Structures are given as structure tokens and as C-alpha cells.
Amino acid sequence: MTRNPRRADFPLLAANPDLHYLDSAATSQKPRVVLDAMREYYERDNANPHRGAYALSARATDRYHAARGRVAQFLGASDADCLVFTRGTTESLNLVASAWGHANLREGDEIVVTALEHHANFVPWQQVAIARGARFVVCPLTSDHRVDLDALRTLVNPRTKVLAFNHVSNALGTVNPVDRIAAIGRAVGALIVCDGAQGAPHLRVAFDTLDVDFYAFSGHKMCGPMGIGGLLGRRAILEAMPPYQFGGDMIEFVRDEESTWATLPHKFEAGTPNVGDAVGLAAACDYLDSVGLDSVLEHERALVRLATEKLRAIDGVCIYGPKPSERSGVVSFSVAGIHPHDLSTVLDQDGVCIRAGQHCAQPLMRRLGVSATARASFYLYNDEADVDALVRGVERAKEVFAGSELNENELVPCRGAR
Amino acid sequence: MSDLQELYQSIILDHNRRPKNYGSLDEANRSAEGRNPSCGDEVRVELRVADDRIEDVRFTSAGCAVSRAAASIMTQSVKGKSRADVDKLFEQFHSLVTGKVRPSEQEARALGELAAFAGVARFPIRVKCASMPWHVLQAALRSDAAASE
User: Which end of chain B is more exposed for a tag (fewer CB within 10 A), N or C?
Assistant: First the structure.
């Protein structure tokens, strides 16, 4: 079978023709153009930006500024100063929960999140709720593991100050209807926070017209390097918010008694900025645009449909989440009598990399009634050979565990929607 | 035998399917729970200890075949043993699963069914699955009798 020609763009995949990398929801592989851009920055323009009054430092500043503009443009944000670079989605969400939450939440206020959330969009809100005496509310899911909008309407009320939810579920791939969810929060004036870690790599984000106040994302899941991501926010809200961290680069004047803050986005970027990774992320945006996000999603969905069909035909396989057309490139499943961790070990023997575990989503796992699932996630470089290897591996695992019928203690009931 | 067959030997698969000493223990006076947050494995061990001897032991778990079988075989191996015995046995077991030592025939005989876990050494990321029940057992042995009731 001919492999996906895009594998040639990714040095790790090109060097490992037998590898079946199905864990892009955890982190994507990196195209050569991204690695080259970073190397080129360090070899030609590296200096500490915003500081030195010399030409090299000015070049580094320019590169950083240009990278911000490119990434903002990729995400449909015309005001690039409203893109704060962070280490990734986790830091972005902590920034909002901490800086906005501590300044604005009062006793009796409510924060609503959904049961689909990654811990990064769950725990920061839970903790700021505890610290501020606010109520933390978790919106339930429908039987096919989508956010239950009817339940959300009853949970959101005038005391709701924050509504936080993901664009796409990392554990199941469920694509949430952002505008419909946001509208429920807007009706009561809540802050709308969207975790886009699994959205930005696959779906076109038009931040200017998207009805959310904050959109958080990670570079490393969208072909960029690890260690950089961002937070897009509305200018008025960002300007009114206190800083998240203090130090160099984020100040205007420092007096002995008090300090004032730099303008956006620097107010939220204390310390030496991560120019090298920002340059890499900008190159990742160029790469994704050259492929076209629409064709990325179309390609993933075709593979998800194929994998879903083939896996479902295997006796004992249970697939979680909604139908492929309402999902991004994720297939979350279990095999009766085989723990996902054991399944992953068997697949690994054939070079098939999947994630097995809780996917940083313990609240969701509890509601699915499982302790773990197996997750295969597809991206633009995957192909049918990857699907076939996955399916062969599952069949092989069934042979290894032949006769391992479910016993009474087994915690893997099939409660998948389809 | 392939690495996979060596890992998933029939002894391990049998203990996974029909674990020994599974459930809760009446009159337990020590207990502990352990969790591996990355994969979701959970193990609970309950003990009845008298005069520094494990009189009886039960476990419950939600986890992979390796961790469940390790817990099951562990419970068989530690009945009647003291805390020092358990520490020593775990040390031998840990050397085995990390591949630090290849046990002699005599040592393998002394390990009994625990020797079936030698195959784990080829799968470094699974060492913690095999070791976790032992850490929980050790925590249970150290737990305050009154606090665990």
C-alpha cells in the first residue's frame, strides 16, 4: 500500500517508514519546515528581544513580532496584540482562571464547565472556585457524549460568571457547537472561555467572529514545537485584567512602592519571550495553510470513518463519542476483556502508537463508567495503512488474550453510544 | 517465545482472568490504595496483620492485566510473611521486572509464580504496572492500624 506522501515532510516519519503514529491528539509530529525555521532563527537572528539597543536584538524583536502576527492571522484574529504567547493551553487557561478569576469572582458566583473537559480546563476553575467561594458546576453529557445543551440551559443562570468548555474533546474527539454553547452563557453575561487545544490543529478558528472571550491553544498539537501556545482574548477584557506573572518585559515603571504595566500583549508575557518557538509556530501555520485546514479535516474524518467501520466489525469493540461527522480525528474505544494499557503494549510491538488511559479527563471517564480507554488519533500525515495496522493489532491482541472473557470484576462495560 | 508471549504468559493471563484473594477482607486492620494517574490503574490492598505477620490479604483493582496479575500473585506470595520478608521479596521481584538480574534456577524456584514476570523487563514502561501492587502493600503495612479502620 502506498503511504501518505506528506510523511516525507516530517523527518521522524520519513525516517521510520514502519511507524504508525496515532497519537497526534497528544502531540503532532513536526514538519521539516518548522525545524528549519527554528534553526535558521537561532543561527541568524538570536538575541534577547525588546532589550538590546543593537541591530541583532532588533532583528530578534522583529522575528517575534512577525511570528505573533502570523499566528494571530492563522487564528482569524485581526488584533495581534490580543494574542498572548504562553507555554501552551494549560498555561493559557490558568492565566485566565487566575488573573480574571481572582479579580472578578465573588462568593456566590458560579462557574460552569462541561463533563467533557480536559483537566486543564477543569481543575483551574475548580480551584479558583474554592479560593473565591464560588460554586463549581459540571454540565452533563448526552448519551452519545456531546454537551447536553438542555441541561446547560438549566444550569446557567444570572449567577454564572464563567462558562468554560472545549472546542473539541481530547478524549473522544467530539466537536462542540461553540456558538450555541457560547450563546447560552452570553444570555446571562458570563465570561466565555474556549479550550481550543484540539480545535486549532483541525478546524478553522475565526476568532474575530467567534463568540468567545478567550480561546486557548497549544502549538505542539498543530505541527509547532513544544513549549509554545497562546491565549487569544478580547482587548477590553485583557486591558482590565491584572497581570498573571510579574518580572521583566511586562512592566512600564517600577517604583519602590508600586509598578505600572506594559501594554498588551507584553503585560502578560513576563520574562524573556520564547522567540525560537514562536518562529517555529509561525512556520507551522504556514505549513498548515499550504495543506489547507479544510482538507486536513476531510482527510482525518475519512480515516476516522474507516477506522470506526473496521473496529466496529470486531467482536467486543466499543467506540465512544458521537458519529464521525461530529468528531475530529479521534477514535476512542475499548475491547472487551483487554485493558487499554495491555492493548497499547500489543500494538506497540507493531509500531502502532496509541494513547491508553484517562486522557487527563477523569471526570469524563467516571461518567463513561470506564477506568481508561484506548485512543487512536489521526492527522494529516496518517493513511489507510495506519488504520489497517491498528485493526490488525486489535485482532492480534484478541488472540493474545483469547479466552479472557469479561469477569465480574472487569470495569469495561460497553456504554458507548455506537 | 516472542517478547509479547513472554510478557503475557498463561500464568499472568489466568491470574488476570481469575484473580486470587480478590475482594475485601473481614477484620482487616491495615489497608492502602494506590493509583496511577496517567493510565487509571487503581489497586486497594487490605490486610490482617498480627505479630508482624500477614495473616490474610485481599485486593481489588481496576487496571491492566499486568497489574492485576501482579497483585493476585503477590497476595499468594506474602501470606504469613513479615514486613521485612515483604521488603526483601519485593526487592527480588523489582530486580526481576527491571531486568537487573537474571535469577538462577534456584532463585526462580524460590520466587514461584512471581518469576512469570521476568518478561516485563523487555517492556520498561510496564514495570510500574507490576510494581504498583507491591508499593500499595508496603504502604498498607506501614499504615496505622487505627487509621485504616
Answer: N
